[in-house]
C-alpha cells in the first residue's frame, strides 16, 4: 500500500484541510457544478439487491466487488445525498476509487431514490436512521469477519452523524466520514433560499415534487398528507416542503421541530466512533452556522475545513486535468483506520 493513501486524522480538533482547488475553479459554485457536468465519470458496474423492510416496503442496494484476487480489506457503505443514487457523480467516483483499493462497496438507496417509487407513505430524511441500521446489520451478517466503514454525502452524512451519536450500539462500524453535510438544517434551509443558492433549491425541490406525485399514483397518501398535486407544486422552498411534507410524513410537528431534532451539530460530542467530517467554507448549500466549535466535538471526531471546495466538489488539479481530491481523502482515511 502506498503511504500517500494513508492519511492521519487529528481527532478532537478542527484543522485546515489539505485540499487545494484547481486553478481558475476556486469559486464555490464552480467547485459544485464542474465535477458533475465536466469531469468524466467512471464506468461503474454494480449488482442490485432488494431488501424487504418490516413495514411492507423495500430498500435497493447497489454492490460493487473489487476484481483483485486478494482478500478484500473492508466493506465500505455509501449513503448518498438528497435525491441522489448510485448514478450520482460523487457516488460513481467513490465506488470506483474504493474498489481500486480492494474495498467491497455497497450503496444504500434511500426509499424512492432507486428509480422505483417506494410502497409506503414514508420516505427518508436527515434523521431517518432505521433503514441504514438495518442495512449496516445486513452487511455485517454477510461479511462478519470484515471491518465496515461508512461514508455519507450531504444529507447522508448528517444522517450518519445522527446514527453514530444516538445508535452506535446497534451497528458495527470501524469508522465513518461525513462530507458536505447540513449539520444545522435550519441554517441550511435559510441559506438555500438566498442568492444563487435558490437555483440548487429549485432543482432539488422540482425533483422531490415529481417523486412524490409519482408515488401518489400508486400509494394512498390521503391519511398522511392533506395536499393535492397542485398544492405540492406550490411548495417551492425547502422550509415549505419540509413543513408540509417531510414533517407530517415522519412524525414531526413542523419544519422547525424536524430541523431541531435531526440536526447533527449539537450531537457531535456524543460520537465515539472514529469519524472524519469534511467541509468547505464556500459550500453554497450552507453557511458558517454548520461549523462546530472545538467544544462541540468529541475526541473521536476530526473536523477538516477548507476555504474552497463547494458542495461535494473538492476539485483539484486543473481545468484540463481535473482531480477529485475527495476520492483520495476517503480512501486515505479508511486505510488509516483499517490498516492502522
CATH superfamily of the largest domain: Alpha/Beta hydrolase fold, catalytic domain
Largest sheet: 9 strands, mixed
Low-pLDDT parts are none
Radius of gyration, taken over Cα atoms and rounded to an integer in Å: 19 Å
For the record, the CATH class of the largest domain is: Alpha Beta
Under CATH, the topology of the largest domain is which?
Rossmann fold
Mean pLDDT: 95
Task: Tell me the strand percentage band.
Answer: 15-25%
In total, the number of strands is: 11
Descriptive report:
This protein is an alpha/beta fold and 340 residues long. The protein has 2 domains: 254 residues, Rossmann fold (3-Layer(aba) Sandwich); 78 residues, no CATH class. It has 10 helices and 11 strands. A 9-stranded mixed β-sheet has the order 1-9-8-7-6-4-5-3-2, with helices on both faces. β6, α4 and β7 form a beta-alpha-beta unit. The model has no long low-confidence stretch (mean pLDDT 95).
Could you name the key traits of this structure?
single chain, 340 residues, alpha/beta, Rossmann fold, 2 domains, nine-stranded mixed sheet, two-stranded antiparallel ribbon, 10 helices, globular
Describe the protein's topology.
Blueprint (H helix, E strand, L loop, with lengths): L12 E4 L11 H10 L9 E6 L5 E7 L9 E6 L9 H12 L2 E6 L21 H13 L5 E6 L1 H13 L7 E5 L5 H7 L5 H20 L12 H5 L4 H12 L5 H8 L12 E6 L20 E6 L8 E3 L4 E3 H15 L1
Parallel strand pairs: 1-9, 4-5, 4-6, 6-7, 7-8, 8-9
Antiparallel strand pairs: 2-3, 3-5, 10-11
Helix pairs in contact: 2-10, 8-9
Amino acid at each position: 500500500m502506498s503511504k500517500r493513501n494513508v492519511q492521519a486524522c487529528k481527532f478532537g480538533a478542527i484543522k485546515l484541510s489539505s485540499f487545494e482547488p484547481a486553478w481558475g475553479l476556486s469559486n464555490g459554485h464552480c467547485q459544485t457544478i464542474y465535477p458533475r457536468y465536466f469531469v468524466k465519470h467512471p464506468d461503474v458496474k454494480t449488482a442490485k439487491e432488494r431488501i424487504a423492510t418490516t413495514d411492507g416496503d423495500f430498500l435497493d442496494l447497489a454492490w460493487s466487488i473489487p476484481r483483485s484476487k486478494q482478500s478484500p480489506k473492508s466493506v465500505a457503505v455509501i449513503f448518498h445525498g438528497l435525491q441522489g443514487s448510485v448514478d450520482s457523480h460523487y457516488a460513481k467516483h467513490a465506488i470506483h476509487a474504493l474498489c481500486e483499493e480492494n474495498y467491497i462497496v455497497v450503496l444504500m438507496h434511500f426509499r424512492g431514490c432507486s428509480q422505483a417509487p417506494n410502497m409506503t407513505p414514508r420516505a427518508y430524511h436527515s434523521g431517518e436512521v432505521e433503514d441504514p441500521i438495518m442495512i449496516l446489520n445486513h452487511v455485517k451478517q454477510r461479511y462478519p469477519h470484515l471491518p465496515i466503514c461508512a461514508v455519507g454525502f450531504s444529507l447522508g452524512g448528517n444522517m450518519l452523524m445522527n446514527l453514530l451519536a444516538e445508535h452506535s450500539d446497534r451497528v458495527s462500524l470501524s469508522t465513518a466520514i461525513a462530507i458536505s453535510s447540513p449539520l444545522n438544517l435550519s441554517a441550511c434551509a435559510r441559506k438555500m433560499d438566498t442568492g444563487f443558492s435558490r437555483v440548487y433549491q429549485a432543482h432539488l425541490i422540482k425533483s422531490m415534487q415529481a417523486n412524490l406525485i409519482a408515488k401518489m399514483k400508486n400509494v394512498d397518501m390521503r391519511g398522511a398528507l392533506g395536499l393535492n398535486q397542485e398544492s405540492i407544486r406550490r411548495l417551492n422552498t425547502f422550509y415549505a416542503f419540509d413543513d408540509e411534507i417531510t414533517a407530517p410524513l415522519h412524525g414531526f410537528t413542523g419544519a422547525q421541530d424536524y430541523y431541531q431534532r435531526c440536526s447533527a451539530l449539537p450531537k457531535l460530542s456524543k460520537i465515539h466512533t472514529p469519524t472524519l467530517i469534511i467541509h468547505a467554507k464556500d459550500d453554497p448549500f450552507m453557511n458558517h452556522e454548520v461549523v462546530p466549535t472545538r467544544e462541540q466535538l468529541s475526541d473521536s471526531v476530526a473536523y477538516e475545513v477548507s476555504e474552497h471546495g463547494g458542495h461535494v466538489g473538492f476539485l483539484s488539479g486543473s481545468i484540463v486535468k481535473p482531480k477529485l481530491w475527495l476520492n483520495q481523502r476517503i480512501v486515505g482515511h479508511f486505510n488509516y483506520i483499517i490498516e492502522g
